[in-house]
Amino acid sequence: MAVPVANTSDLNDDELMQEVADNAPAMKTQYAENLRQVNDSIREAQGLVDESPNDQEARRSLMDAYHQKSMLFEMAMDRSLP
């Protein structure tokens, strides 16, 4: 069972990167790398949860990974505000 991303925005990854490119182009490479890392963490944690759905530590790791992604989105959106 996948854990939904916190509802910080309705953006997907591509839209997030476009926001960063439009509003903080110097940060685009850093955001792209951070987004890649957090998505890798989510995939890895989701795999662990899929293998052992009752493993609370695996579920906690998945929630932490989604929280990190949510924070990344929040930081990008904060930069886009005037």
Can you walk through the features of this model?
By secondary structure, the chain is mainly alpha-helical. Helix content is 73%, strand content 0%. The termini are far apart. The N terminus is likely disordered.
Give descriptors for this structure.
82 residues; 3 helices; disordered N terminus
Largest sheet: none
Helix count from the secondary structure assignment: 3
Write down how many β-strands occur, each being a DSSP E stretch of 2 or more residues: 0
**Span from first to last CA?**
38 Å
Low-confidence stretches: 1-9
Averaging pLDDT over every residue, what do you get? Answer: 85
| Strand residue percentage | under 5%
Q: Classify the secondary structure makeup into a structural class.
A: mainly alpha
Determine Rg (CA atoms, Å): 14 Å
Give the SSE string.
HHH
Quick gist of this model?
This protein has 82 residues and is mostly helical.
Question: What's the topology here?
Answer:
Blueprint (H helix, E strand, L loop, with lengths): L12 H11 L4 H24 L4 H25 L2
Helix pairs in contact: 1-2, 1-3, 2-3
